[in-house]
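I have a small job for you when you get a moment. Can you supply me with one protein entry, sequence and fold together? It will help me judge whether the discrete encoding reads sensibly. Write everything out right here, beneath this request:
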Amino acid sequence: MHELSLCRSLVDQACRVAERHGAPRVRRVSLRLGPLSGAEPALMETAFPFAARHTLAEGARLELIPCPVRVHCPACGRDSEALATDLGCPRCGEWRTRLIAGDELLLESVGLAADPSPRHDQEAPHV
């Protein structure tokens, strides 16, 4: 399960953000995740609490932001949403398209705690 190593890297990044801003805890980690990223959303959600144990992100919430698959078609010149299983142009049928979105695995934002208590109702501004 490579999702655990992905979550460990994600937690490391979030903790570095918290340390840089002097925050005592990470409350939320938002991750932009495309269907072609190679990561399974359900496994990411399962692995995240294990990766966050004994870190500033322990107890943080993982928020997954889904991204659609998008392709650029050189034949008709349009950008379109496509299926993860069919990257052909849905407008003209051209099969030689270029992937422009859908493979994202990007840290979108980190919600930092304003105080060290484990309460989830008090969050500092997003970073």
